[in-house]
Amino acid sequence: MKIKSLSLMFLTVGAMIIASCSKKENAQISTPPLQVGATVSDAAPLTGSIKGTMLTGKIYTISGDVTINEGDTLLIQKGVTVNMTNNADIIVKGTLLSLGTKDQPNYLTVKNVTKTSDPNVNPADDPAYQGLWTGINCDVTCKLLVLKWTHIEYGGGIYSNPPVAGTKAGDNSFVILFQNVDGVFVMEDSWVYGSIDDPIRLKGGKFNLMRNTFEKCGFTGGDVMNAKSGSVGNMAYNLIIGSATTGTKASNKGGTPVQSNVNMYNNTYVNSGYRRVESGRGGSINYEEGAKGQAYNNLIVDCRFGFRVVNDPLADTLNLKYGYTYNYNSTVETANEIYPTGYITKPQPTDVPVPSTFLPAGYQLGAIYDGTSVVGKNDPLFVNYPLPQSNFKKIAAVGNYDFHLSANSPCAGKGNTTLLTPLNVVPVDPNFGSSEITPPGKDIGAFQLDGSGNHH
Fold first, then answer.
1. 8-state DSSP, 9
2. How far apart are CA 416 and CA 52, in angstroms?
3. What's the CA gap between 418 and 392, in Å, rounded?
4. Which range marks the domain in which residue 182 is found?
5. Is 67 domain-assigned?
6. Residue 447 lies in a domain
């Protein structure tokens, strides 16, 4: 980061003196928004090298590839809209900070494109799956990427030129690519809407991906959060609806010296895995190819496959712990894959439905079984999403639905808060790290009845 002094990172605090009725003077502290370097002008479309600060309330246009050079920083203050055009790419060799807030989120989007939550729209005609701009592509020199309260929409287009290491022209971009084993990637309270391939690909790095919402991710393939070798961190309190393939995935493929180690907890997975062309792949949770981690308190609703532990190439099963997985299935098709056929997921006595109530005596891992008896059972009682659902294969956006838990949900209080300790691998900082590393919650899924967890 090209920051000359601490004063550029933590700006001078101003104070206002307000008189009270008791004639005592109470100082009310007001902190100006962070600013780094010079102000980025919104007077003309942006292309080429970029650094400095995009100011609150401004609307910017990026009309060609922009590059944040190594040693430089681009800061996006709250309430900024960035309109992407011409399949533009944001190439990050330095640092990118997007610091939206709940009341003033940021947008990286495409102007004059209309979203639809109509499940009957052909995916081939839906702009969510057309990759209208490329993405945020971080090179191996990117030390820090922070995205807070940021909408990232319609990304994942085709590379016209290979922008960073490991990419090539003609391939589908990831909406976000991060690949510095020693770097930090934080994404919290944000939204990704649409992609052709993976919306998030981690090829190394320390990360914390918490309280995000993912809709319509992957056209005919693509895992939502796909962590490869060298990736260490948490995926927690995320809502994933209608993804093409897996919601959260860990693999040690890539051969870095750092083993992939991913905690996945308190996530909600809905209606995922149905646009995947290749059979036998994806839907909710996936550990494979030497990856380790822990996974608890996850809610899986009408996904093509349940929690999947892969035996070829084999996950690090000696260092993989999981349980308290809550499953709901509207049809026998998905009930028959709570424990996916052909894989080695071990049924846990803490799972819902309780495995002994529907698996046959002497069940062998990966064997075919009949899940008819649990179809339509254990409704999690979302605030506004009717179950059983006949159209779940096509519903891929939140729209007017509400996936918070009702007060009388059977998921309430059924999570475990002691078995998993979050991986505290990123800094906790309002600007340069995570706002907090949220520990496991007592309610199953992303939304907690006490208001913690996912805030969307």
1. H
2. 44
3. 33
4. 58-405
5. yes
6. no
